[in-house]
Amino acid sequence: MAPCTWGSVLPFVAMVMVQFIDIGAATINKAAMSKGMSSYVLVVYSTALATVFLLPCFILQKKISLTPSLLGGQFLLGLIGSSNMLLAYNGINFSSPTVASAMGNCIPIFTFILAIVFRMEKLDLRRSSCQAKVLGTIVSVSGAFVVILYKGSVIFSPSNSPHQNFMMILQQSNKWVTGGLMLAMASILKSSWNILQTSIVKNCPSMITVLFFYTFFVTLQSTVFSLFLESNPNAWVIRPDIEMISIVFSAIFGSLFHIGIETWCLHQKGPVFVAMFRPLAVAISAVMVVIFLGEALHLGSVIGSVMIAIGFYAMMWAQVKESSSSAIENEVPNLAATQKTPLLQCSTSAEDG
Predict the structure, then answer these.
(1) How many other C-beta atoms are found inside a 10 Å radius of the C-beta of residue 351?
(2) Which has the closest alpha carbon to 290: 155, 177, 164?
(3) Across the strands, what pairs with 297?
(4) 115, 197 in Cβ contact below 8 A?
(5) Among 284, 323, 267, 247, which residue's Cα sits nearest to residue 18?
């Protein structure tokens, strides 16, 4: 087995951090939207602020040629990203971060299928690593649906009374279903975004350029959409409270940090590696919504989180096994070459003598 190096561990650590950042941003955004903040305004202001942060880096970097194909790919990437963000933020507003992270577990399946269709991933069920990856994805997604469909008894309840929680669920039952559908559509778009982003990163060596034009196009496109969808002019006035915090946090961590780390991991490991970390977010959100949003922790969340963890580590084992097999295959030709060289040298010396 190939030795474990920092270069192989860093993408793993980075993607785990991304999951914590995503759930933290979703929790803060949910708190802001619960107090009346428009989800459309949140998307526009957060991406606009991220673009402003990236502008000096884009200007000061080494100039690269901007081809029409690169700008066209970035425009399409921004269109997918803006649609995904608008659907995801509205889905969180109508449901909760737990449902968002659970529905996000459809991303590994869609990404895996799309990667196979576009020949970015090989499906060989005779290999144990491929079997583990498929089974791990199925187990993780099954655990996510357990979190959604089976609540079970309450293990831990915050200060809110059960009656208040029950009445709130009754009042928002229709929005809950709508939010789930929006989040499912956002998962499909996110899978497409992973595939397209991987090809764009290969054609563009500058990550700053990719990030800048992505946030720039998302800002323009989401502004156009939001001006039609958000008709209340007062919604565009930001209050200096949780609304301001959610915008800044989403811009720095939800946009810059998330997109930057994810783009780098896509370049290093590919779209399937990035997507397979999504199941971990359900377990994280199940804890964070109890602490910060006051939702009760149910038995179904615990059972589902355990299933997700099992599937998650099965997929990670498959990823490590594939990486080790590739390293061994690359070492064999090199070893054969090093063994042949001394023999040739000895033969030459004997002839000279």
Answers:
(1) 7
(2) 155
(3) 156
(4) no
(5) 284
Phi and psi angles of residue 315, each rounded to the nearest 5 degrees, phi first: -70, -40
DSSP string of 226-287?
A: HHHH---GGGGSPPTTHHHHHHHHIIIIIIIIHHHHHHHHHHHH-HHHHHTTTTHHHHHHHH
Helix runs in the chain, H state only: 6-34, 39-60, 68-94, 97-103, 106-117, 128-149, 162-171, 173-203, 207-229, 242-249, 258-269, 271-275, 280-288, 299-352
Q: Which of 45-49, 69-73, 298-302, 338-342 has the lowest mean pLDDT?
A: 338-342
Tokens of 152: 């079970």
Structure tokens at 246: 């959610």
Q: What is the Cα–Cα distance from 336 to 343, expressed in whole angstroms?
A: 11
The residue among 81, 83, 89 whose CA lies nearest residue 27 is 89
Span 89-106, pLDDT tens digits: 888 888 778 777 777 777
Distance CA 332, CA 325 (A): 11
Other residues' Cβ atoms within 10 Å of the Cβ of residue 73: 19
Place of tokens 């720039």: 216
- What's the whole-model pTM score? 0.72
Rg of the chain (C-alpha set)? 23
